[in-house]
Amino acid sequence: MNQVAGLKTLHAAASTNLVQRMGLVLDHLVSALGEDPSAPLRRAQILVDIDAHPGTTQSEIMDRLAIPKSTMNREIEWLYDHGCIVRQMSFSRGADGRSVPLETLGYAKKNLELALHYADHSYNNLQNFLECIIRMFTDPKPTLRDAKILVAAADLGEASRQELFARSYNGPPTTNARALESLMEQGLLVSKSEE
Amino acid sequence: MGIKLRPTPAVNEALMRAADGLAGLHSAAPAANAVLGLDHK
């Protein structure tokens, strides 16, 4: 682990509450996924699974995570195109794409290591966390941004839209507004008057 | 002053489960662990 990043992580871990730690884990997962907060949480699960099983294949990941083939193909291609994973080249020529060994690398690997720090360095813990978060949503493709807004809302207890936007990720205002609307439609966030 | 938003009690509870899962205090998704092949650190 990069020493400075490691020290920052240790400091953050010591100075945050449980809810804030979840936000920091989400931040590291966004960084691991090319700084894309619109990434689905399932994509993060796939990346964590590959990091936990270096040299694993697409077929094995599909079996472990029970993710449909079409989704898996799309997500693996995204991770490869964005430099999050590498295919072991000796296997790739003429091989079935689903049997090519995969590994994480670069910024994805580094940021997963930082996220794992908050999970007692346990892939099992990190996957449990992601699974719990995914199950909160009725939307079939919740994103890291959706999760971050909910975590921020839980940390603040009660917040205005602007306060939640300030805690969310940068991006077009309409993106954060759409995410907030979706969370309200799913009944996950309620206005004070609705209670 | 604008409208204030808050998470539902169910969301707060689910987030606490997620935090426990992150800390390894309990298995948040016990049925999934065998499938995930992640019963080890």
Q: What's the structural blueprint in terms of helices and strands?
A:
The complex is a heterodimer of chains A (195) and B (41).
Chain A: H1 3-14, H2 18-32, H3 41-52, H4 58-65, H5 69-81, E1 85-87, H6 89-92, E2 102-104, H7 106-117, H8 123-136, H9 144-156, E3 159-160, H10 161-167, H11 173-185, E4 189-191
Antiparallel strand pairs in A: 1-2
Helix pairs in contact in A: 2-7, 2-9, 3-8, 9-11
Chain B: E1 4-7, H1 9-23, H2 30-36
Tell me about this structure.
The complex is a heterodimer of chains A (about 200) and B (about 40). Chain A is globular and about 60 Å long. Chain A is built from eleven helices and four strands; from the N terminus they run αααααβαβαααβααβ. The termini of chain A are far apart. The model of chain A has no long low-confidence stretch (mean pLDDT about 90). Chain A has a single domain, classed as Orthogonal Bundle (Arc Repressor Mutant, subunit A), CATH 1.10.10.10. In chain A, helix 2 runs antiparallel to helix 9, helix 3 runs antiparallel to helix 8 and helix 9 crosses helix 11. A two-stranded antiparallel sheet of chain A has the order 1-2. Helices cover about 65% and strands about 5% of the residues of chain A. Chain B is mostly helical. In chain B, about 55% of the residues lie in helices and about 10% in strands. Chain B contains two helices and one strand; from the N terminus they run βαα. Chain B is elongated and about 40 Å long. At the A-B interface, helix 2, helix 4, helix 8, helix 9 and strand 3 of A face strand 1, helix 1 and helix 2 of B. Strand 3 of chain A pairs antiparallel with strand 1 of chain B.
